[in-house]
Amino acid sequence: MDVIPLSALQHFLYCPRQCALIHLEQLWAESRETAEGRILHERADLPGAGTRKGVRVATAMALSHEAFGLIGKADVVEFHSQADGGECPFPVEYKRGRPKAHQADEVQLCAQALCLEDMYGKPVPRGALFYGQTRRRKDVVFDRGLRELTLKVLQGTRAMLESRQTPSAIYEAKKCDSCSLVDLCMPQCISRQRSVQRWLMNAVE
Fold first, then answer.
1. What domains does the chain contain, in order, with CATH numbers?
2. Where is the DUF83 domain (predicted)?
């Protein structure tokens, strides 16, 4: 079974075509937004371990889940002390901007929790998303609904990647205009071509 990067789940839920362009066709383009995100990640991208306010912290921690075929890394994993003397992993993912209406960020974080549960053999009930624009954390509870959505997205991502087929472009201004791959994807052009093809097919029927 081929492994799937954790980031692919976030890309797939946001836009399956974006996911395919990045993970199948190996395309990438930098934008102001992606540059800001890269800068935000620079500190967390340095592997290391330490203690912060009495909490053990690991940065750029490698993650994997053998059964699910997932691999990647967590920006930050805090290890919170428990009453029984053990520690509970608490993943923290850094994102630019602010919280979004869709759940792509939450799914990526939940997938990290699934990996941590597999690696440490204990439940990981919560984590957090840190947004650069608000400079605040958003707590995320890994409830049944989010876990089911994450597994559904994983199945969809795997099916698409195994098909080796890049989905057709569907132009959505709110998503497409803010995507760094918009010039490579050309959603408006491709969508117009498909509309013309449908019109011609209907005209000759």
1. 4-166 (3.90.320.10), 168-205 (no CATH)
2. 7-186
